[in-house]
Amino acid sequence: MTKRSLFALLAATLAAGPAAAQSPPPPCNALKDASNNPLPPPVYISGSTALEPMLKTIGPQLAAQASGALTIVYLKDGSCSGVNRIFTDGLIKQNMFYIPPGYDPKATPTPPTCTVDATVGVPGDLVLSDVDPSLCPTAPTRPANITDFNGPVNNMVMVVPSTSTQTAISAEMAYLVFGMGTPGGVTPWLDPMFYFIRPNDSGTRAMIAANIGVGNHAWQGVFSANGKNFGSGDVFNNVAAQQTVQPEQTIGILGEDYYDQGNNRASVKALAFRAFKQKRAYWPDSSATARDKQNVRDGHYKIWGYVHMLSVTNAGVPMTANAKAFIDLIQGKTQGSGFDVQDAITDSHLVPLCAMHVTHDIEAGDQKPYSAPAPCDCSFVARATGNATPTGCTACNAGACATGVCRKNFCEAK
Amino acid sequence: MIAVTVALGAAGCGSDNKASGSPDMATGGPGGCFTGTPMTNEDFLNACTSADSVDVTPFYPTNAPNGVLPALQ
Question: Rounded to two decimals, what is the model's pTM?
Answer without folding.
Answer: 0.86
